[in-house]
Amino acid sequence: MALGGGGSRGRRSGGPAGGWKDWVVLATLVLALAVAMVGVGRSWGSVWRELWIGSQGQAAAGEVVEDGVAAGQPQVEGSRPDVSEEDVLPETEDAGVLPVRAVSYTSWDADASPNYWRMVGAAVVDVDIPAGQVWYAPLDALGRTTRAAGTVNFALMEDGLARERGSLQGHDPSGWGHNERASIALPGDRSYNGYFWNRSHLVAKSLGGSDEVDNLVCGTRTQNVGANDGKGGMSYVEGLVRDWLFDHPEGTVFYSATPAYEGDELVCRSVVVDVRSDDGQLDLEVEVYNAALGYRIDYATGEFWAEG
User: Which CATH architecture has domain 58-80+90-306?
Assistant: First the structure.
């Protein structure tokens, strides 16, 4: 299992000046930290995930804040995003035919679903995708993203986490073009101050998803990552999958994300996510709401206004 991005998988030569005793001390400290974290209710998978991600310098939870700020750098009042100048994007691989699935949406209730998702039931698994692949359905006649799905294994997740993120500039999903900075209230008397819309992935980069437009929707910041604490939006479901894979590195997870539109509207009302692990421990369908507290959205155009 590679722990580095692009390094060799063999044993590192050399070591600290203090010799093997320093390595023993370091290993003891790391083990003590891991045991302490498990002791307060953390799973080994989540502890290993954080140690692994930290070694990579990657932000796994929540994927991206618009204009290149990693989700591990939450935007709170007074912060401003930095713009990434990267312009190299991974190519979408040819794959099998992914059927477009008809899904419906419900209206978002801020009291019932403060983290912008609701549990629907058991997952719907309607396509057999080989392990380690993600398939993308074509855009529809209105240029709207229709579906992305894959069978995610540890290697695919590992590659996604290690892959350098390119710029999403110019990869605009339907409804894009009315983005402005906004202040969105978050739980705990916090607020997000940044761009209202994100180019939100259907299959997260950290799960091996592409940065191409057939894997992106015009999603609110809160649809994408909720409050940026791993508990909301698409980030919630993505975190469940990553944690399970770190606990079961030999296993696979079926993952499907389907936007739900109203009529000819260009911006989806929700994204329906289906997740099933090969042992059945994960088996859920979740509706993730494309909304933001305190704002009205014209889903036909992508324009938005502050309420009141």
Answer: 3-Layer(aba) Sandwich (3.40)
